[in-house]
Amino acid sequence: MKLSARNNLKGKVVAIDKGQIVAKVKIDIGGQSITSLVSNEAIDDLALKIGDDVHAIIKSSEVIIGK
Amino acid sequence: MADCKVEAILALRGGSRSPVGRDRIALLEAVATQGSITKAAQAVGLSYKAAWDALNAVNNLLPRPAVAAQTGGRNGGGAVVTEDGKALIEAFHLLEERLSRVAALFSAGDAPIDPILLLRSLGMKTSARNAFRCTVTEIHQGSVNAEVILHLTDAVTLAATITDESLRDLAIVPGLAVTALVKASFVMLAIGEAVPSVSARNRILGTVAHREDGPVSCEITLDIGGGKVLTAVITRDGADELGLRVGARAWALIKASQVILAVD
After folding, report:
1. Are A59 and B216 in contact (CB < 8 Å)?
2. Of the four listed, B61, B110, B136, B144, which is most buried by Cβ atoms within 10 Å?
3. pLDDT in tens, B150-188
4. CB contact B184 to A (< 8 Å)
5. Residues of chain A neighbouring B263 (CB-CB closer than 8 A)
6. What Gene Ontology terms for biological process does this UniProt record contain (chain B) (predicted)?
């Protein structure tokens, strides 16, 4: 499968914090960390756990630039 | 290390959420024999909610639904597997059998690449709750990005803007089958009779089929017709303010720039 999203960053899951509906997932991308909020269902569906190799996928239109 | 289960799930080209893996086929088969989602869920050891979500994901990815069910409440009503659903079950078993033969060849050591890595790269799953199998109907190309118009159901079209690079990389042309991915938190909801006058390209009318509240967030599943559902995660305050109870009519608003396209 190929995705239209321009940013596809490889990383490792370092933390999963499940709430009632959504979960917070921290992904280590070469020393920097990315936080992702996904639904609990997605965590179960992907069988996501700490240490998993994952991709952080971000559409280019979603990236805010600060200087 | 060869795991036939992984191979079989990934080989069906079901899109981003692998809706036709062995677990979901088993669930479909259970629906066919039990005649209800509740009983099917029990038979395969899933909660009703998990089974309902899994079947909705399958329906969203097929041209026509695999399961026709009453989605009225948590306990649900009767459910039947459609002809398309039966064809899917049959196709799955056929492919699974073929795959296991291919796997045996790989395991014999003749393969130049790791089959597990190869199959995994084919079947990447994403966390996006909404994955819709669509057909590209139109492309409006700009100098930096392009608007891609997709046929989702006979009543619903979806607009996605992607970069020109993506259009080229994915070789997107009219007629191509793609999977549109929309993160649930990107979906805004609105109420009212008239089409909301907002800039969002995608304004889809539906009926609330399910609502699940957390302390802050609220997950709402909209039945948008044609056997498809759309999931939104909004704040609980927002849901209460709009009175979004099961059976309420609501508009799902999605900016075209928030739709990701995937090709097999």
Report:
1. no
2. B61
3. 999 999 999 999 999 999 999 999 999 899 999 999 999
4. yes
5. 1-2
6. molybdate ion transport
User: Per the CB < 8 Å rule, is A4 touching B160?
Assistant: yes
This prediction has a pTM of 0.68
Neighbours of B174 (CB within 10 A): 11
Q: Are B161 and B232 in a shared domain?
A: no
Written as one letter, the residue type at A9 is L
Tokens of B29: 């088969």
Whether residue A55 lies inside any domain: the answer is: yes
Residue B70 CA to residue B80 CA, distance in Å, equals 10
CB atoms within 10 A of CB B48: 18
ipTM above 0.95, yes or no: no
> Domain range holding A38?
7-59
The half-sphere exposure of B88 on its side-chain side, counting CA atoms within 13 A, is: 30
Domain residues for B158? 135-175
- Nearest CB neighbour to A41, from listed B122, B129, B169: B129
Show residues of chain A in contact with B50, CB under 8 Å: 41, 44
Residue A5, helix vs strand vs coil:
coil
Partners of B179 on chain A (C-beta within 8 Å) are: 1
Extract the tokens encoding B222.
């909209």
All residues of chain A having their beta carbon less than 8 Å from the beta carbon of residue B161 are 61
Residue with tokens 């259009």: B167
- State how far residue B122 is from chain A, nearest Cα, in angstroms: 5
CATH assignment of the domain containing A48:
2.40.50.100
